[in-house]
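Table 4 source record.
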Amino acid sequence: MIWAMYLPRCGKMNAVSSSGFGKCPKQEPMDNFNLTRFTGRWYEIERTFYLIELLYSCVTVEMETVSNFKLNISVISRSRWSDGITVSEGFAIQTRKEPSIFVYKVHSKLPRLISKYLPASGAYQILDTDYDTYAILWSCSDYLIAHNDMIWIWGRQKELNVTTRANIYEILEMYQLDPERLTLPKNGNCLD
């Protein structure tokens, strides 16, 4: 599922690929991020390829504020194999240094040492949002000598219009992230 690391939006034209040698690049944090306006319901519109997400469609994310820096998060999805509904619950803690970056942990009965490596657990960054229409999320993981990153496009509605998508792709390019990496999830027959 979701969230992040960093890289300045300067004029350098080194495109950030989905994986590479070295540590994760740094992305510039979003200015004046408003946690209250960000909470609520979001629908997954596009994402980069992530093997585990091939099993799911119709992803909806519900977020509610628990405290000034903590969100309860429910990720509701449909299994593409069984057609059943799956709910994954967890919480995200906003970093104090960069409010648009969160550390997400899945609720689990597994020991903490193991549960922090569960799929979806990790750091996520909101690169950009207008709070009412779209949000761009990014996450990057380091693996000793290499890294791998992921992008999600969320919408308040299940679809985004062409103008909004074009704007999102321009924003991704400003962050030196290739919008060609995005895929459309299989969201046919989604229900609320």
